[in-house]
C-alpha cells in the first residue's frame, strides 16, 4: 500500500521542487544579467566621461544604434562626438559626472546622471538608456536638460 | 524503492526546497507591482488629472524636475493649470523598466496631436506600494543627426 502512494508523492514533490528551483534559477539569472549589464554601462560611462573613445569602444558591440539627436549613428558617430567634446573641454577642466539613479531590467539599463561642465553652475540632468546584447552596448537613447539656477521646486538633484 | 530510501529522498528534497527558499532575492512580484503602479500613476495623471492620480502617491511625495513646484497642494495647482492650458495634451509610455525600489519610464509627451513633442525619462522610487519620489528629465524632440529617432 505505501509504496505506490509513496512513489506518487515523491514524483509530485520532485516535480514541484524542480519547478521551484528552475523558477529561482531563471530569476537569479535575470538579476545577474541586469547587474552585469549595469557594470558594463558604468564602465562605458566612466570612459565616456573622460572622452576616451578607445576605452569606451571595448564596451560596444558589433553595432551601435544612436538615438541621441546630436550624435551621428554608429560607433563612428560616438568617436566624432567624443573628439568634439574633448576639443570643447580641453581648455577647461573635465566636467564632473555623477550617476544618481540606475535601473536595470532584462537587456536594458536606464540611468539618471548629473553632469557639471563647469564648477559652480547648475549643470545638466542627463537621462540615458542603453540596450545590451551579450554583455555589450548596442543601442543608446538619451535626454539632456540644462538645469536652471533656481528650480521651481525641489530641484533635480536635491535629494534627501 | 525501500521505505528508507524514499524517506531519505523526501528529506533531501525538503532540504533542497528550504535552501531554495532561503536565497535572498527581491520579490519579483513587488518589482512588477511597482512598475504597474508607476504606469498607472502616469496614465491616470495624464488622462484624469492630479486628484485621481494622487492615490498612487505617498504623503511624503517629492517631485524633482526643472518645472515642478514643491508641496502636494502646489503640485495639484500646477497640474490642474497645465491640464486646463493644454486640453489636447497626451502622453505615451514607450518603455518601462523596474528594479529593486525604482521604476523607469521612457515617455513621449505631446502638447497636442501633430506636435514633435518632448522626450521624457522619468525615474520613480516606491515604498510600500506608493510613489515617494520622482525625477524627470525632459528635452524637446528636435531635428536630429541620425535616422533612428529619439525612441
CATH architectural arrangement of chain B: Roll
Cα(first) to Cα(last) distance of chain B is 61 Å
Overall number of structural domains of chain A: 1
Radius of gyration of chain B, in Å, reads 22 Å
Globally, the shape of chain A reads globular
Number of strands of chain B: 5
Using the coordinates above, name the CATH class of chain B: Alpha Beta
Let me know the average pLDDT of chain B. 87
Domain module count of chain B: 1
- The string of secondary-structure elements of chain B, in order, is HHHEHEEEE
Task: Give the largest interface.
Answer: A-B, 55 and 51 residues
| SS content category of chain A | alpha+beta
Could you describe the 3D structure shown?
The complex is a heterodimer of chains A (160) and B (151). Chain A has 160 residues and is an alpha+beta fold. Chain A has one domain (24-146): Nuclear Transport Factor 2, Chain: A. Helices cover 43% and strands 29% of the residues of chain A. Chain A contains three helices and five strands. Chain A has helices at residues 2-49, 53-57, 74-89; strands spanning 60-66, 96-105, 108-116, 124-133, 136-146. Chain A has a five-stranded mixed beta sheet, covered by helices on one side. With 151 residues, chain B is α+β, with helices and mostly antiparallel strands. Chain B has a single domain, classed as Nuclear Transport Factor 2, Chain: A (Roll). Helices cover 38% and strands 32% of the residues of chain B. Chain B has helices at residues 3-22, 28-47, 50-53, 72-85; strands spanning 57-64, 90-99, 102-110, 118-127, 130-140. Chain B has a five-stranded mixed beta sheet, covered by helices on one side. The radius of gyration of chain B is 22 Å and the shape is globular. Chain B starts with a helix and ends in an 11-residue tail after the last strand. At the A-B interface, helix 1, strand 2, strand 3, strand 4 and strand 5 of A face helix 1, strand 1, strand 2, strand 3 and strand 4 of B.
Amino acid at each position: 500500500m505505501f509504496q505506490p502512494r509513496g512513489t506518487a508523492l515523491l514524483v509530485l514533490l520532485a516535480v514541484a521542487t524542480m519547478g521551484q528551483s528552475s523558477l529561482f534559477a531563471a530569476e537569479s539569472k535575470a538579476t545577474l544579467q541586469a547587474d552585469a549589464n549595469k557594470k558594463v554601462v558604468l564602465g562605458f560611462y566612466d570612459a565616456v566621461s573622460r572622452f576616451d573613445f578607445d576605452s569606451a569602444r571595448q564596451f560596444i558591440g558589433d553595432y551601435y544604434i544612436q538615438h541621441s539627436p546630436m550624435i551621428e549613428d554608429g560607433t563612428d558617430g560616438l568617436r566624432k562626438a567624443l573628439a568634439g567634446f574633448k576639443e570643447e573641454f580641453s581648455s577647461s577642466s573635465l566636467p564632473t559626472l555623477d550617476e544618481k539613479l540606475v535601473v536595470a531590467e532584462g537587456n536594458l539599463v536606464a540611468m539618471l546622471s548629473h553632469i557639471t561642465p563647469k564648477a559652480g553652475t547648475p549643470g545638466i540632468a542627463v537621462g540615458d538608456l542603453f540596450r545590451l546584447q551579450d554583455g555589450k552596448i548596442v543601442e543608446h537613447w538619451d535626454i539632456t536638460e540644462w538645469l536652471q539656477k533656481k528650480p521651481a521646486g525641489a530641484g533635480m538633484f536635491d535629494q534627501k | 524503492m525501500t521505505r528508507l530510501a524514499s524517506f531519505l529522498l523526501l528529506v533531501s528534497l525538503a532540504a533542497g526546497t528550504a535552501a531554495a527558499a532561503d536565497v535572498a532575492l527581491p520579490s519579483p512580484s513587488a518589482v512588477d507591482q511597482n512598475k504597474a503602479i508607476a504606469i498607472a500613476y502616469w496614465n491616470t495623471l495624464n488622462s484624469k488629472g492630479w486628484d485621481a492620480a494622487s492615490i498612487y502617491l505617498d504623503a511624503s511625495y517629492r517631485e524633482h524636475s526643472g518645472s515642478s513646484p514643491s508641496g502636494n497642494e502646489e503640485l495639484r495647482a500646477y497640474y490642474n493649470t497645465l491640464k486646463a492650458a493644454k486640453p489636447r495634451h497626451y502622453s505615451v509610455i514607450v518603455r518601462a523598466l523596474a528594479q529593486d525600489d525604482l521604476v523607469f519610464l521612457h515617455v513621449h509627451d505631446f502638447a497636442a496631436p501633430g506636435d514633435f513633442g518632448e522626450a521624457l525619462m522619468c525615474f520613480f522610487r516606491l515604498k510600500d506600494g506608493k510613489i515617494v519620489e520622482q525625477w524627470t528629465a525632459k528635452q524637446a524632440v528636435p531635428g536630429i543627426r541620425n535616422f533612428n529617432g529619439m525612441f
